[in-house]
Amino acid sequence: MNSLTKEEWEILNTYRFHQSRKALKGEEASSFLDGDEMESYLNHRLSVIGTDDLKVAASLFMKRYAFVAAMGLMTMTYWNKKLNLAPHNLIMTDGEKKGLWMPQFHLKDASATEFTSREEKEEFIQSIFRDHLNPVIQSLKKASKLSNLILWENIAVYVFWIYENDDFLLNGGMGIGRDEQFQALLSDENSHWFGRYHNNPLARYYSSKVNVEAVPGKVRVRKTCCFSYRLENGEQYRCKTCPQTCRVKKI
After folding, report:
1. Mean pLDDT score of the chain, rounded to an integer?
2. What is the pTM of this model?
3. Domains of the chain by residue range
4. Burial letters for 170-183: b for 16+ Cβ neighbours within 10 Å, e otherwise?
C-alpha cells in the first residue's frame, strides 16, 4: 500500500478531489449509472447548475464529471499511483466557483497503490472509461437525449489537457512513457477500452491547434458545443475554443 503524499493531495485538492474523512451529504456516484436516477438528479439541480434545459445540464454535468478521468490519468501518468475511482467509492457534493456550479469529489477509500506493469495500467484505464464513464454517458443520454458526441468531447478535452500540460512535470511528476500512453489512448485498436465502440471515441476530437483571433496562443477548436453559453448569463462562460465563434475568427 502506498498512499499519496501531502504535496500530491494538495494538487488533487486544487482540482476538487479530496479525501473523505467524515460522512458527507452528497451523491454516491453509483447512482449516476441509472438513467432514471440521473434524470432525477439533474432535475433537482437545474437552478444550481444555472439552466432550465436538461440537455444543457447534462452537458455541464459531464464537463465537470470528466475530472474523474483526468485525475485518475494524472496520478497514473505522473506519479505511477492508482486511485480507487469505482462509482461506489466516489461521493460528489455541490460546490461553486466564480458563479459556476463546480462539484467536489470525495474518495471514501483514499489509499493508493503503485502500478507494477503496463497491463495493470490498461486495466485501470478500462475501469475508468468502459466501466465508469461510459455507463454515466449512457445514463445522461437516456435522461436528456443529448448526443454522446458532446459528452465524449467534454471528456476528451481534459484527457488531452492531462497529456499536453507540462505543468504536471514541473510539479514533480515523472511522466515516464507519457507520449506512448497518450497515443494508446487515441488508438482505434484500443477502442474496447471505452466500451462497445468500433472507433476510438476520443480520437475524433484530436486535431491540430490553430490561431484564433483574440485568443492567445494556438488552441484546439472543439467540434461540438458544450452549451456553456446557454447558462444563465452564459455568454461570459463561453469557451475560448467554442466552434460557434472560432470557426469565423480563425487567422
Report:
1. 91
2. 0.93
3. 6-204, 207-251
4. eeebeeeebeebbe
